[in-house]
Amino acid sequence: MMMGTPKSFRLHIGIFGRRNVGKSSLLNAMTRQNVSIVSEIAGTTTDPVEKPMELLPIGPVLFIDTAGIDDVGALGELRVQRTRKIFDRTDLGLVVTEAGAWGEFEEGILQELRSRKIPAVVIFNKTDLAEPAKELSDRLKAEKVPTVRTVASKGGGILELREALVRAAPEEFINAPTILGDLVPAGELVVLVVPIDLEAPKGRLILPQVSAIRDLLDIDSYCIVVKERELRDALDRLKRPPVLVVTDSQGFLKVAGDTPREIPLTSFSILFARHKGDLDEFVRGAMAIEKLQPGDRILIAEACAHHPIGDDIGRVKIPRWLMQYVGGKLEVETTQGHDFPDDLGRFKLVVHCGGCMWNRREMLTRILRCREAGVPIANYGMTIAYSLGIFERALSPFPGALETYRRLRA
Prior knowledge:
Rossmann fold; 14 strands; 4-stranded parallel beta sheet; 6-stranded mixed beta sheet; 3 domains; globular; alpha/beta
């Protein structure tokens, strides 16, 4: 069912503007539901409100209605901080204003979107009361910023807004890249090694595994799914070897031992490092493990909040493997969800999860923040493979990333 599409696969559309310009009315009109509270009192929306829907021909999208970015006072500042975090995961920005209201706030929002290379659409709402200034409309047109006139409370201009969103949507959401499509020819077999452990949801597989299966079906390939202990027997039964083996990163060592060297091997996490982030950047980040010293501070960043189990991969296993590699104790901090430290410079390495529950823009934003702070960043799969001494093997399906590693190592 389309409404069951995970957030990470949706186009994130952020709705920004002053208080009481009609952002919530606009969202309600777009979704044809009373998702956000509408009131004449400025600042009714106190926290970002999310609404998933299907917007053809783009497909699944996620609208994010933000608190007014001109809010004042201590509570207002907290709301503004939460609103600004939405920029990090916005793929397409809507700047909502009304006649006579355009000023430094709107210019600032538009500039923030431009600096992040996020496409934007300016919406002049309440045009039944007044029209925007011709000079402003002409300037935005000259700057190639699309504009739409709406009367959100009455549904006016919503069709034109939908059309503007389709035209402004990033190309990758119209023609979304595959996870395995460039690695696996049609009609070929992939073996997926899926552990059933305490972190696996009861009765379900986790999102990267489900996504890989669906992607293989979409590209007319097929797969068999096994647990670690059945892998060797499964490979022995095949008349011809698979073109690829993909494993959960926690099983890297055993799976590498049971998979013949001539069969390319990688992990779900590394696939998502490429699909959601920047594989070359994560290669550089993993190589920074070589320079870690006992006492260094590292950050483990998890995109989704979950209750940690006793042998949690982020809090226990990865720190343990890194400390074994370094030969001493490391200072480890952990963050979850959309929280991310401002003072990244105090870390020697950031180790991020695969980000399967996020859109790509938010992961790229974090990579950019680490780059600006001069802090290397790697993801779980890359970190595990490097710590266990099988980095080249894990990069074998990706010639470009493997070349980057060999060039930096030389």
